[in-house]
Design goal:
- The protein is an alpha/beta fold.
- About 35% of the residues lie in helices and about 15% in strands.
- The chain has eleven helices and twelve strands.
- The strands form two sheets. The chain has a six-stranded parallel β-sheet with strand order 2-1-3-4-5-11, sandwiched between helices. Strands 7-6-8-9-10-12 form a six-stranded mixed β-sheet, with helices on both faces.
- Helix 3 packs parallel to helix 4.
- It starts with 12 loop residues before the first helix and ends in a 5-residue tail after the last helix.
- The relative contact order is 0.16.
Length: about 375
């Protein structure tokens, strides 16, 4: 993501240690399914048949949010939520989770939708600041909305970031905002890399469909995946392009890249929506997803899990959108004066052919 501001937020110590152990245990050959990728680089790929490295944990030395605006405990709160988009199932599920939990908690919740437009989200947040809510939840579209996050903190409003972070050089955690609650996107990329190696036997020419430029999950899912596959000489990202986290753009970008790179054997998508678009693109050129082109993605939405069960998508690493319960629990604890760390890491699961069919009904 050249030219983007990147501040490392999560140091997935436990996940990295577990990955190291699993990689040492996972060296070796490939199954018959993996052999279809061809090539000779798989023999030195430590990721092939490695165990899923699982979730990481926030570092033990994450400070508490002592210098952020305080929140007075009371029976009811006026809360605002700035959502960055409603253009995919993940965002719709996150908003539904926030609304549901607000209803359970008896909270007066105002929700805005930036329609995937950064300038609109900045305007939305400024408008919400003017309304002087007790608490402001923000799902940042990119890390570059840090200035308006800082403005909210300066107005004395406790801000809780959901699912994405902002530039810490501008808005400081524990000072300008309380905390960020998110999945470990780098770890998600590492987990996807292990699945891709297993799917391809460690031999793959990969098209990478990136998320929205400047968004922390796009930056970090790229880093986690790209760093992990350096352990495998037979795995190479031959081209990488922004698909904006949407199915339509994922399909159009994949169509173009498949034409310009006809020797590609795999696609890594930063989310399920782009992966589903890519699967349609693969089918459109007469190839078979899951056989001719292996596809791995992140999110764990219902259509993605269905694609795993059908064999079109090899695996998807969950990034749960159901932030409501943890978001409002964290808010309540902060109001009660309990120490709240400036980073809270979600726990997510992995969906493969072994558990996909049984997981569809519970998916979003």
């Amino acid at each position: 993501m050249e030219g983007s501001v990147h501040v490392r937020k999560i140091a997935p110590l436990a996940g990295m240690a577990l990955l190291s152990v699993s990689l040492l245990a996972g060296c070796g050959g490939s199954s018959n399914d993996n052999a279809a990728s061809g090539g000779s680089g798989g023999a030195d790929c430590a990721l092939v048949n490695a165990d899923d490295p699982g979730n990481s944990k926030a570092p033990s030395d994450v400070p508490a949010a002592d210098a952020a605006p305080k929140l007075t405990a009371k029976s009811s709160y006026k809360v605002a939520f700035s959502q960055n988009a409603s253009n995919n199932p993940w965002r719709l599920a996150e908003t539904a989770s926030m609304k549901s939990e607000a209803g359970t908690a008896g909270v007066d919740l105002t929700v805005t939708d930036a329609n995937n437009d950064q300038s609109k989200q900045i305007a939305d947040v400024k408008g919400l600041i003017a309304q002087k809510p007790d608490v402001l939840f923000i799902a940042p579209i990119t890390e570059q909305i840090a200035n308006v996050v800082k403005d909210a903190g300066a107005a004395g409003i406790p801000v809780f970031l959901l699912d994405r972070d902002v530039d810490h050089n501008v808005a400081k955690p524990g000072q300008d905002f309380v905390t960020v609650i998110q999945s470990d996107f780098i770890q998600e990329g590492k987990r996807a890399a292990v699945q891709m190696a297993t799917a391809t036997g460690g031999n793959a020419k990969i098209i990478e469909l990136e998320g929205t430029t400047g968004a922390s999950p796009a930056i970090d899912r790229k880093k986690g995946f790209d760093d992990a596959i350096t352990q495998c000489s037979g795995m190479q990202v031959v081209v990488s392009q922004d698909g904006d986290f949407t199915r339509a753009k994922g399909q159009s970008v994949a169509e173009t890249l498949l034409q310009s790179h006809p020797d590609a054997t795999a696609i890594y998508a930063h989310n399920d929506e782009m992966a589903l678009g890519a699967i349609a693109a693969v089918k459109a050129i007469g190839k078979v997803p899951g056989q001719d082109i292996k596809v791995v993605s992140i999110d764990g939405e219902k259509d993605g899990i269905k694609a795993v069960a059908a064999g079109d998508l090899y695996a998807t690493v969950e990034c749960s959108p159901r932030f409501g319960p943890l978001a409002f629990q964290t808010m309540t604890e902060y109001a009660a004066g309990k120490p709240v760390p400036t980073l809270i890491v979600n726990k997510d699961q992995l969906f493969t052919k072994d558990n996909a069919a049984a997981s569809v009904d519970a998916a979003y």
